[in-house]
Fold this protein.
Amino acid sequence: MRPTNLTGESADYVSAREELQQAEIELMRHRERVAELRRRLPLGPVVEDYAFEEGPADLQAGDAPTRTVRLGDLFTRPGRDLVVYHLMYGKTQTEPCPMCTMWCDGFNGVAHHVAQNVDLAIVAAADLPTLRAHARDRKWTNLRLLSAGSSSFKYDLGSEDAEGNQDSTVSVFTRDDDGSVRHVYSGHPRMSDDIDQRGIDLLSPVWHLLDLTRRGRGDWFAALSY
């Protein structure tokens, strides 16, 4: 099946495009197999009902009053999973990570679509006013923003080390009928000793759009900007 109706494509181009299309089909099928493996993971452990700090739902309404919410409170109704993105900001990460910021820019744009199926929250080590100030700059009006405060949530989920160094991470949780929260899945950029920054590529369309072009994504961070 030809992707276009353009004339003048050389035989070499048509052959190479067909080879590429077969590789794209293979990639799609492999991606579906990987997603199925995620869905088939056995139930993870019951986790602590971690406490977070949250401000007003209206980002423009200031930062007070604050309230304490538990991990289990982030599920808006039964039968839904919870996705938490760990934003690299706070403690030793004194500036917000530009890659995480780009990820959250995208989440903010599709949050109302995501909410049809799952609950979504952004958690940072930064204190709440600092986190919300950055969110206001980015116009993250559709995201639920939480500070991990003094809890061990980020450390336990592998997005923070003992010295307070931060990492970007995505975690998925589910809730049992009795209200207990279980860990389902976490993914990190660092997949192995030789794969340092590719583990959560699927969270952003930016890299995939750049990969469609002849120049590709180039330097990992060069395409990121505020």
User: Anything to note?
Assistant: The beta strands are 51-54, 67-70, 82-87, 119-124, 145-147, 169-175, 181-187. Helices lie at 11-39, 98-114, 128-138, 153-156, 205-211. The two ends are 40 Å apart (CA to CA). The first strand starts at residue 51 and ends at 54.
